[in-house]
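Re: the request from the purification team.
They wanted to know what the chain is likely to look like in 3D before they choose a buffer screen. I agreed to run a prediction and write the result into the notebook, where they can find it.
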Amino acid sequence: MCGRQLSGRTRNGIIAILLAGAVIALGRPAAADSLEASLAGFGLLGLWAVDCDGAPSTENPYGLYRMLSANEAELRYDFGPQFEPHLHIITFAEPVDGGRLRIKHLDRQDGIYMETIIQKLAGRIQNVSVVQSDGKVVIKDGIYTLNGRPAVWLERCRWYFP
């Protein structure tokens, strides 16, 4: 510093600024928290079903979460052989709290963007909130708004190996 001594006040101010910068930098989510890291960290990647021993159907949907690239994942719902798979492209995921994950995804058939909150409890998952980009609420508190039925709980199919 050009041979000059810093006053105690100036030195303390510089230290405070450096510490504040460190706290801010450490408090932000790391850039390494990628889509894959968020999905894998939550344990979502893989195959899920109401009953993994039963065939896919409207009462036993299979949901496959898999990475397509570093920035995109796919959710593929299988409702049985009489239906085409229903595809969603996931572009964002972040933990909400210890047992919930928020994902943003595009329904490829309908072209509708959605935000979904998935809860995980005792190794099973359930959509507890689904809101479309136009504001329409599809699921609220784990209940379908259209018919009042609860959203299904899915278990991980342990026999599936990608």
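For the purification team: Confidence is low (pLDDT under 50) at residues 10-32.
Please add any questions underneath this entry.
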